[in-house]
Design a protein that fits this description.
The chain is an alpha/beta fold and 110 residues long.
Length: 110
């Protein structure tokens, strides 16, 4: 991401000590936030950080596709952003959930 000059905001679910932190291989990020809600847009400080990126298109990646990624994507769409999901960068702990069986690859969430 640094090579491409793409800013990265990271959100971690509280309590981070129990849920887990940021993997070392991600390298430097623009900012890291801890959150209490599935939807990152419910946190004013995160919403401000996203707005300060001055981007209209956002790529959302992460864990718990059926909860955190979904809720955050819907919140970002409601704020007027174009949201893109990268299937290979999504994860869920629910074994029965298969993103590829319910959505076309590389399709924008609408």
């Amino acid at each position: 991401l640094r090579y491409l000059r793409v800013p990265a905001l990271v959100t971690l679910e509280r309590p981070v000590a129990t849920k887990g932190g940021l993997p070392n291989f991600l390298g430097p990020v623009t900012a890291t936030f801890q959150k209490d809600y599935f939807d990152l847009t419910r946190h004013p400080e995160i919403q401000t950080a996203v707005a300060n990126l001055k981007r209209s298109q956002l790529i959302v990646v992460g864990c718990e596709t059926d909860v955190c990624v979904l809720q955050s994507s819907l919140g970002l769409l409601a704020l007027g952003y174009e949201v893109f999901l990268v299937e290979d960068l999504l994860f869920t702990s629910t074994r029965a959930y298969d993103l590829s069986s319910t959505h076309e690859s590389d399709r924008r969430l609408e």
